[in-house]
Amino acid sequence: MSEKRLPVITINRQYAAYGRTMAAMLSERLGLMYYDKDFVRKTVAESGFDYEEVEKRGDDMTSGNKFLNDLMNATVGTYPDYHRKLYVAEREVIKELAQEPCIIVGRCANHVLREEKVPVFSIFLYSDVYKRVKRAFELNENGNEDIIRYIKKRDTMRNNFYKTFTGSDMTDCSNYNLCLDTGVIPLDECADIICGILEKL
């Protein structure tokens, strides 16, 4: 498989649906670099954003931020909020990374690359919220908040970010080449499915 040029692979995911884990598995199998946390660092280095702020916001957006963004853009045109500035910076990094086959997690990369006419194979990972509890506990990012409530909140925030900058719902299957339920299909089998399809492209 390494002898043929693969498309850029993008992975969008619900919270705790093993997006980063799947990226690492595909990276090892396909011999491609993958960008998630490293991508954040690259964005910071090239755009001058504060690392802690970028790390904290990632590709999440609260409903309050989304409302303000929508309101300001509807009334005064382009509203230069932090999320939009960060998205513009990340978009440039995505375009740079996509010059070579790689795997990019989140950041609306599937949308960005399709707009740029870059060959892309886009994947969406999802699962029932209750099946994501184990992984959410492993991530240990909920503090004292109820784990189910936290998972749903993170899903909403990711979808807000995606919808703001793409105009589409993140969970809409028409945005992807392949959608996989990681709560039902074991991760190794998900990787097998993905690699099997890529071999035939």
Task: Describe the 3D structure.
- The structure is a single chain.
- The protein has 201 residues and is α/β, with parallel strands linked by helices.
- The chain is built from nine helices and five strands; from the N terminus they run βαβααααβαβααβα.
- The chain has a five-stranded parallel sheet.
- Helix 4 packs parallel to helix 8.
- The radius of gyration is 17 Å and the shape is globular.
- It starts with 7 loop residues before the first strand and ends with a helix.
- 34% of the residues are buried.
Unreliably modeled segments: 64-80
CATH homologous superfamily title: P-loop containing nucleotide triphosphate hydrolases
Q: What class, by secondary structure content?
A: alpha/beta
Task: Tell me how many strands there are.
Answer: 5
Compute the number of helices: 9
Q: What is the CA–CA distance across the termini?
A: 11 Å
Strand line-up in the sheet with most strands: 2-3-1-4-5
Instruction: Name the beta content range.
Output: 5-15%
Order of helices and strands: EHEHHHHEHEHHEH
> Major β-sheet, in short?
5 strands, parallel
Helicity, as a percent range: 40-55%
Rg from alpha-carbon coordinates? 17 Å
CATH architecture: 3-Layer(aba) Sandwich
Q: What is the mean pLDDT?
A: 87
Question: Under CATH, the topology is which?
Answer: Rossmann fold
Outline: globular
Instruction: Write down the CATH class.
Output: Alpha Beta
The figure for the number of domains is: 1
